[in-house]
Amino acid sequence: MNTPQTAVVKITAISSNNYFKVSRKNYPDNLIYSLKHSGMLEIPFLIKTDSGYDIFTCHNRIQILRDSGMEELTCFILGKADVELFMKHVSLKAYRNELGPYGKLKVLSVLNTYFKTDQQTVKNYCIKVLKLPLDVIENGVYLSKILSFPASLIDYLDEKDISFKTIKDLSRMPDDWLSLINNWLNSLPVRVNIFRMLCDYLFDIYRRGDNIPILEISSYSDDKALYDAVFRIRHPEFSMLKSRSESIINDLSRGGISVDFPEYFERKNFTIKLDIDKRSDCELQLKKIIDIDAEKIKDLISLL
């Protein structure tokens, strides 16, 4: 394509249409500082419309400038969206690692739906540049479901670079289950490893035909407490085992004796400790070990 003409555009004339936005919602401090003090070093492309302009590139940067109160911006003006420019722009973002998994899927959708690019070109580009799995590229149902995910879930998937395996499981859940996860993300900071396990457990609960979990998010102080609650629903037998193990451990834990037992029964061993200080009667303390009820030890072992 020929290089388009530049024009000084009032930011108020630029719409908030984010159809072509594919990068993560990311406003790092160094970018904000650079834009406020040096302006746009990368000239954005806008598409002329009847009512003003739509953004074609540099969505995050324009939003930062809009928030900072800047009134005008020098831009390249396009008469219509150009697929070659779009693919070059996406390739640059992929090189800069500015694309999350959702953004990559949105690129696939724009190439297919808006530009109607031939399938072989799309497949080659998405494999080589975006590193998308082939089954993701070829599964239109999977793609359309993900593109309709709730906003906070989308942002989390991109920000944390969640795997396509987890995203694929999420796409198989009903909308109300996705809304549940979205509500959790709006209410609590959730670590990536816990998010993956929560998704795994919810998918398992859904597949076995259970109803959506009823959890009052305000009751949980952090993501670990939320994880424990979902874990108990996923493993209903766990609550019974947990209660039994805690009862045995309480019986054993007295007179300086403590038991280090795996919280989720994930190990095949546990540790019994005896706390002794220099004022203790060593023979009396050692007798406590000898007097431990062997049957209770066997009961604990049987729970692992």
Task: Map the helices and strands.
Layout: E1 6-10, H1 29-38, E2 45-48, E3 53-55, H2 59-68, E4 72-78, H3 83-95, H4 101-114, H5 119-128, H6 134-138, H7 140-147, H8 151-159, H9 164-171, H10 175-187, H11 192-207, H12 223-234, H13 236-252, E5 257-260, E6 271-274, H14 282-290, H15 294-303
Parallel strand pairs: 2-4
Antiparallel strand pairs: 1-4, 2-3, 5-6
Helix pairs in contact: 1-2, 4-7, 7-9, 8-10, 11-12, 12-13, 13-15
Give an account of the 3D structure.
With 304 residues, this protein is α+β, with helices and mostly antiparallel strands. The protein has 4 domains: 1-81, Conserved hypothetical protein from pyrococcus furiosus pfu- 392566-001, ParB domain (Alpha-Beta Complex), CATH 3.90.1530; 82-148, no CATH class; 150-234, no CATH class; 240-303, no CATH class. The protein is 54% helix and 9% strand. It has 15 helices and 6 strands. The strands form 2 sheets. Strands 1-4-2-3 form a 4-stranded mixed β-sheet, with no helix packed on it. Strands 5-6 form a two-stranded antiparallel ribbon. β2 and β3 form a beta hairpin. α11 (192-207) runs parallel beside α12. The protein is elongated and about 90 Å long. The termini are far apart. The mean pLDDT is 89.
